[in-house]
């Protein structure tokens, strides 16, 4: 049977890159995004344009055929629009789903909590229901490394308990994992959750550190560096994330027949449910990250050292043993390589676009 893959969030950072990769290997892709104004929509429209979606043709709930890829159609639909989501699944006979659309951002969740309930909970429920009733063979969805919250055992493992999130964003992502397991158990829906670790690269989000630091250093402006610069992050390059998502998508879980309810493993289940970390498994000091940016730009950063922000954790580090064992894959892009590629894109993009 011909696969028709729904990728939600295709105007977003990861969704854009994933859609391109899937399109280039010949999959039929249905893209969905509400093009929210969480950050500059012009960047989202630029990503869509890059995939052949003419912004002048975008209308609510209407298909826009790509002018670049014959196998790509885009729909502007909000995740909370239950009837439109259901109709999309039925009309397009979706067989697999990669659900990336969500309200992102830890700090934003401190001041705009209701946005997370609407998109990340109600919106995710709409996706689950549509998968349930339309014979979807695999739902892959984005979780986050933020679910590890107060955990301090390093590296972070999907087999660890994660019941202590410290931001509403993280709590909604943990909730997604619980909701997905419930649907997997009740309805036999194969589901895989992916905990992404600090994704970066070309076409990245303007609210992320690499984008903010690069902009500030180029403009010679002070930039906030939190936790007095003592942060460590498991920065993961976008191409590595996309490769991991595709390998997972092509290998739906089947469930663990010997799963032990007396000693429950959070990452697996007797249902067709699975969790994976996708990270570089090599934490980088924030100051070293900044040095890589400075080196590429040939300019020195002006740093405004700040305390740790509410909702942030001082260090992340992904255990990717399951990814290696099950799918023979481990992200490996060096920070210097990834940072250089981002800055080259940044300079080229803004050379032709006014700030």
Entry keywords:
single chain, alpha/beta, two-stranded parallel sheet, globular
Walk me through the structure.
This protein is an alpha/beta fold. Helices cover 39% and strands 16% of the residues. The protein contains eleven helices and 14 strands. The chain has helices at 13-24, 41-50, 82-92, 108-111, 113-133, 168-187, 209-219, 238-249, 286-297, 321-327, 335-351, and strands at 4-8, 28-33, 63-65, 72-76, 96-99, 138-144, 191-196, 199-200, 222-225, 232-233, 236-237, 273-278, 284-285, 302-305. The strands form four sheets. Strands 3-4-2-1-5-6-7-12 form an eight-stranded mixed sheet, sandwiched between helices. Strand 1 (4-8), helix 1 (13-24) and strand 2 (28-33) form a beta-alpha-beta unit. Helix 3 (82-92) packs parallel to helix 5. The protein starts with a strand and ends with a helix.
- Largest sheet, order of strands side by side? 3-4-2-1-5-6-7-12
Number of strands: 14
Net shape: globular
Low-confidence stretches: none
Distance between the termini: 46 Å
Order of helices and strands: EHEHEEHEHHEHEEHEEEHEEHEHH
Gyration radius from CA atoms, angstroms: 20 Å
Oligomer: single chain
Task: Tally the helices.
Answer: 11
What would you call the structural class? alpha/beta
Architecture blueprint of SSEs:
Elements: E1 4-8, H1 13-24, E2 28-33, H2 41-50, E3 63-65, E4 72-76, H3 82-92, E5 96-99, H4 108-111, H5 113-133, E6 138-144, H6 168-187, E7 191-196, E8 199-200, H7 209-219, E9 222-225, E10 232-233, E11 236-237, H8 238-249, E12 273-278, E13 284-285, H9 286-297, E14 302-305, H10 321-327, H11 335-351
Parallel strand pairs: 1-2, 1-5, 2-4, 5-6, 6-7, 7-12, 8-11, 9-14
Antiparallel strand pairs: 3-4, 10-13
Helix pairs in contact: 1-8, 3-5, 5-6, 7-9, 9-11
């Amino acid at each position: 049977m011909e696969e028709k893959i729904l990728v939600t969030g295709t105007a977003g950072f990861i969704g854009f890159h994933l859609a391109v990769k899937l399109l280039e290997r010949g999959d039929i892709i249905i893209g969905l995004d509400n093009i929210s104004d969480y950050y500059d929509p012009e960047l989202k429209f630029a990503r869509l344009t890059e995939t052949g979606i003419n912004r002048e043709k975008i209308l609510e709930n209407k298909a826009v055929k790509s002018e670049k890829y014959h196998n790509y159609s885009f729909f502007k639909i909000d995740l909370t629009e239950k009837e439109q989501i259901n109709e999309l699944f039925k009309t397009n006979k979706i067989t697999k789903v990669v659900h990336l659309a969500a309200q992102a951002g830890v700090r934003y969740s401190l001041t705009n909590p209701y946005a997370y309930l609407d998109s990340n909970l109600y919106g995710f429920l709409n996706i689950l229901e549509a998968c349930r009733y339309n014979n979807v063979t695999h739902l892959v969805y984005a979780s986050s490394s933020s679910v590890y919250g107060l955990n301090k055992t390093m590296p972070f493992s999907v087999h660890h308990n994660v019941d202590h999130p410290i931001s509403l964003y993280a709590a909604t992502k943990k909730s997604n994992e619980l909701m997905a397991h419930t649907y997997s158990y009740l309805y036999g829906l194969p589901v895989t959750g992916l905990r992404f670790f600090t994704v970066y690269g070309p076409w990245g989000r303007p609210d992320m550190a690499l984008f903010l630091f690069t902009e500030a250093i180029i403009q010679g402006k002070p930039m906030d560096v939190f936790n007095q610069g003592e942060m460590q992050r498991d920065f993961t390059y976008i191409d590595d994330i996309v490769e991991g998502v595709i390998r997972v998508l092509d290998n739906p879980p089947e469930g663990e027949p010997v799963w032990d309810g007396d000693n429950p493993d959070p990452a697996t289940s007797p249902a067709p449910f699975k969790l994976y970390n996708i990270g570089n498994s090599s934490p980088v000091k924030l100051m070293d990250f900044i040095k890589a940016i400075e080196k590429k730009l040939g300019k020195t950063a002006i740093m405004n050292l700040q305390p740790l922000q509410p909702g942030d954790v001082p260090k992340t580090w992904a255990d990717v043993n399951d990814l290696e064992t099950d799918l023979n894959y481990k992200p490996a892009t060096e920070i210097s390589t990834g940072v250089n590629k981002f800055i080259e894109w940044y300079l080229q993009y803004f050379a032709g676009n006014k700030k």
